[in-house]
Amino acid sequence: MAPHRVPSGAGSATSSAADRSDESAPPTPTSAGHPTLARTIRPPARPAGPAQPHRLAAHYPLSTPIAAMPTPSMSPLRATLAAVLLSASLLPSGSAAAAEWEIGAGIAKDIDGEATGVATLAWLSEQRHPWEVMLGYIDNRHQNGAVSVEDSFWIAVSKRLTWRGFYGSFGLALAQEDNEVLSDHLQFQSALGYRFGDASVSLRHLSNGSISGRNRGETFLLLHYAF
Q: What's the predicted TM-score (pTM) here?
């Protein structure tokens, strides 16, 4: 069988058609041959020179005092709560106890032995050695059917030290009246006591320590109950 021959004009026509298709197709742009495209895809050039400082550093250089920098404002209530929480977090975990109230009643005697009634209300802080804030009332005294010494209120702040049920305290007090027994308003209060469960008994003395006027003072024997 004779080999099949391709007409001589067919190859030329095919080559011419391919050439024409190549000529009619739009050229593929490249960054090298297309100036606009090259400018588009070229990364922006960074200016030469030292690194730019941070915005905060630009406004507040290292030489600026800390006090001159702005700080976020805090309301007085939030500031108080924050201070309380911080103080509570600094307390030793093993030395804290529940805060409580104590009511007390007993007798008061002055230096002459004249007795009258006394009542107290105290708040104790949440510590092993608590702070004691006490409000007290001393009834008036009578002599020959008449009032010889007016009744009086006092308030005292003392630090209480405890050991195996025993405790002692000392602090400052302010008396309402300046009378024959409690001369001057500034007083000192000291105490020795013993606690068993929620009950306790204490012997206390309230006087001005001879800082002014007379120093007769009051001595109390009190029975307390905590709640």
A: 0.56
